[in-house]
Amino acid sequence: MQVSVETTSGLERQVTVTVPAERIDQDVQKRVQQTARTARLDGFRPGKVPVKVVKKRYGKGIREEVLNQVIQETLFKATTDEKLQPANSPSIEFKNDKEGEDFEYVATFEVYPEIELADFSGVEIEKLSAEVKDEDLDQMIETLRKQQASWDEVERAAEDGDRVKIDFAGTIDGEAFDGGKGEGMDLVLGSNTMIPGFESGLVGASAGDEKELDVTFPESYHAEELKGKDAKFAVKVQSVSAQTLAELNEEFFSNFGMEEKTLDGFKAEVRKNMERELVNTLKMKLKDQVFRELVKLNSIDVPAALIDNEIDNLRRQAVQQFAGPDSDFDLNMLPKEMFQEQAVSRVSVGLLVQEFIKANDIKVDDERVQTSIKELAETYQEPQQVIDWYNSNQEMLNQIQSLVMEDQVLDQLLASAKVSEVEVSYEDAIKPAQPEAETEEDAAE
């Protein structure tokens, strides 16, 4: 067997393999003889079909099977001998498969990048810390009351916080535009659902009023054709409703699955959930920050095949989140560009974390795995059943082990970095992290 390797571009490799004709002919002959012993053909007794007849009837299919088997065996040996790590399934092109001649094929695939991790000790990390204060708890309970609130029509002018039912039609330079019209839409004033100036322009309006609002679409508006455009909206107010917050009573507590239907018990449970969410959010933000710095520090080529796979995963997650797990929505309807940056980041982090694990010979901590399972189980009514289920389900157990391994990597990276603790409010702590601002240097690139 002869092997040659060519780097075509970046991480792509072309491996040309030549297999002597003698081996192919021998393997075909063996397979023909085996088939002759079991073949059943009219006019011949079982096991007595002549080899010549078998070869004529089944020779082409047998040769194809042999060639496929030879490709599997020789390509595995070739990549092992050449120390190549394929990142995707290879595409195979036959160069010569004529009977009696040496068999030659070309396998094209991407390889994993060679990674030499940079020193992490100079990296500066801000570790956020926060606590749930009484005012945070009160604000959360107020939010929960609003979620269970009722709306009652009132015969007065609309105030901030009221809900109005409206019909509206928008124009730009006297022309209607897509998405600029609606009927019977409920809008809470002050919710910032609409573009600036729209909601504030309806404060003071009563049922039956017709108003004309002059507004400007923000430069950051999602529709390119509307960014920065001045618009007029003709609005008719059908009704005005005031909000009545839910009472803190047994019925209210029952809506949240509370066994102890008292205000003190409810507050204690809400605080516990807030503290759990706070811990998880701070941990996730810290992990994102550290892994983002790891990617910045280690510029690596990422196999396109892995990026495409991750884009498909993100597409599936998006469809499940917004359309439900049983949706038949075509994933390809979602543009790849929507997920490209996130996919590259995820794959980069995955490759770097795996390299860090290998370089530092990190083994998963089984005690931490069980602790994680117990913490997860505490959120369910029957914790022990959840614990037993995770430990008896290898796929789910593998997921927990992977998360724990990530945490162990995080701990080691933090131990070598320059970490400063920054105290923030609960509200700021649980806010989604904002994308990093583009620097002038980035923009120039």
Name a few traits of the molecule.
alpha+beta, Chitinase A, domain 3, 445 residues, 4-stranded antiparallel beta sheet, disordered C terminus, Trigger factor, domain 2, single chain, cytoplasm, 5-stranded antiparallel beta sheet
List the helices and strands and how they pair.
Layout: E1 2-9, E2 12-19, H1 21-38, H2 51-81, E3 91-96, E4 103-110, E5 124-129, H3 134-147, E6 150-153, E7 163-172, E8 175-188, E9 210-216, E10 230-244, H4 250-254, H5 263-297, H6 304-323, H7 340-359, H8 366-377, H9 383-392, H10 394-416, E11 418-423, H11 426-430, H12 440-444
Parallel strand pairs: 5-11
Antiparallel strand pairs: 1-2, 2-4, 3-4, 6-10, 7-8, 7-10, 9-10
Helix pairs in contact: 1-2, 5-7, 6-7, 8-9, 8-10
InterPro entries: PPIase_dom_sf, PPIase_FKBP_dom, Trig_fac, Trigger_fac_C, Trigger_fac_C_sf, Trigger_fac_ribosome-bd_bac, Trigger_fac_ribosome-bd_sf, Trigger_fact/SurA_dom_sf
Main location: cytoplasm
Family: Belongs to the FKBP-type PPIase family. Tig subfamily.
Description:
The protein is an alpha+beta fold and 445 residues long. The protein has 3 domains: 109 residues, Alpha-Beta Plaits (2-Layer Sandwich), CATH 3.30.70; 200 residues, Orthogonal Bundle (Trigger factor, domain 2); 95 residues, Chitinase A, domain 3. Helix content is 44%, strand content 21%. It is built from 12 helices and 11 strands. The strands form 3 sheets. Strands 6, 7, 8, 9 and 10 form a 5-stranded antiparallel beta sheet that branches. It has a 4-stranded antiparallel beta sheet with strand order 1-2-4-3. The two termini are 47 Å apart.
